[in-house]
């Protein structure tokens, strides 16, 4: 059921790769709630994914951009504002990539040059996006920016590797830039810490199947799905959350607040 929560709003969604991705599901939900959208991803991801299928479904242009390249981001924002005929009301940052994980390197053996790229793509890209919007005055008053993160930024999940550091940096950027953008234009900047979700990227993490089962048993409400995360993002883009900013918001069925559950205890006693 749609509620027109985003009627008249205009936003950029980064990171939609295929139907499993949270960015893809969020784009659909935003469109259903009345928003106009621009879709963006890295040029290589545009070639690999199915984003044109999504673009047709949500009637959105696709503008490629390397989020580590300021010229690309400047072009993206300028073309988006031209398409919308004005400023931008919301942004979803759903971007993450670990070269060390791709190469099978453990956390204690990471390649530091790879690590620089991981941090730049997965975390400092949010700073670059916000800086570009700041310099171009691209965001409207009380706009909302959401970046997707994971609880490994606060707790150790060994197989999440260097991405844990990247997510911790991402959350720090959210607070620091959120403070400045709040003062400047009442812009909100938050992260959503989502349950482990069967996305194409998430499924590539070592031991993912076992962990998603564990998280399900550890969450009183169960794991949150990609569609449910999309619903939550819609509320953060809407005017119903006008005073929420600089927060890391857990959307994980209660996992982050649960020490242990009876189901896990019973499993351990078998």
Topology diagram in text:
Elements: E1 10-14, H1 22-32, E2 36-40, H2 43-48, H3 51-58, H4 70-84, E3 88-93, H5 99-102, H6 112-136, E4 139-149, H7 163-185, E5 188-194, H8 208-218, H9 226-237, E6 248-251, H10 262-269
Parallel strand pairs: 1-2, 1-3, 3-4, 4-5, 5-6
Helix pairs in contact: 1-3, 1-9, 4-6, 6-7
Task: Explain what this protein looks like in three dimensions.
Helix content is 46%, strand content 14%. With 270 residues, it is an alpha/beta fold. Helix 1 (22-32) links the parallel strand 1 (10-14) and strand 2 (36-40). Helix 1 (22-32) crosses helix 9 and helix 4 packs parallel to helix 6. The model has no long low-confidence stretch (mean pLDDT 94).
Low-pLDDT residue spans: none
Share in β-strands: 5-15%
Query: What count of helical segments does DSSP give?
Result: 10
Biggest sheet, spatial arrangement of strands: 2-1-3-4-5-6
Give me the strand/helix succession: EHEHHHEHHEHEHHEH
State the distance separating the first and last CA atoms: 43 Å
CA-based shape: globular
The strand count comes to: 6
Task: Estimate the mean pLDDT confidence.
Answer: 94
Percent range for helical residues?
40-55%
Structural Rg: 18 Å
- Describe the main β-sheet briefly: 6 strands, parallel
Query: In terms of structural class, how would the helical and strand content be classed?
Result: alpha/beta
């Amino acid at each position: 059921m749609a509620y027109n929560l985003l009627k008249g709003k205009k936003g950029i969604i980064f990171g939609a790769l295929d139907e499993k991705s949270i960015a893809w599901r969020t784009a659909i939900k935003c469109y259903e709630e009345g928003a106009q959208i621009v879709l963006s991803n890295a040029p290589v991801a545009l070639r690999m994914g199915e984003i044109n299928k999504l673009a047709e479904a949500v009637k959105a242009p696709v503008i490629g951009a390397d989020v580590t390249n300021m010229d690309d981001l400047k072009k993206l924002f300028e073309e988006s504002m031209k398409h919308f005929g004005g400023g931008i009301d919301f942004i979803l940052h759903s971007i993450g990539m670990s070269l060390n994980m791709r190469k099978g390197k453990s956390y204690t053996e990471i390649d530091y040059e790879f690590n620089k790229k991981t941090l730049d793509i997965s975390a400092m890209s949010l700073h670059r996006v916000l800086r570009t919007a700041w310099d171009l005055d691209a965001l409207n008053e009380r706009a909302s920016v959401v970046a997707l993160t994971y609880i490994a930024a606060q707790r150790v999940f060994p197989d999440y590797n260097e991405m844990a550091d990247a997510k911790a940096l991402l959350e720090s950027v959210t607070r620091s830039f959120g403070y400045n953008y709040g003062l400047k234009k009442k812009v909100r900047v938050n992260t959503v810490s989502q349950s482990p979700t069967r996305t194409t990227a998430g499924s590539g993490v070592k031991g993912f199947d076992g962990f998603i089962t564990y998280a399900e048993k550890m969450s009183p409400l169960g794991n949150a799905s990609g569609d449910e995360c999309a619903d939550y993002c819609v509320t953060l883009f809407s005017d119903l959350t006008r005073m929420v900013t600089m927060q890391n918001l857990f959307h994980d069925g209660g996992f982050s607040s649960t020490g242990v559950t009876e189901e896990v205890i019973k499993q351990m006693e078998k």
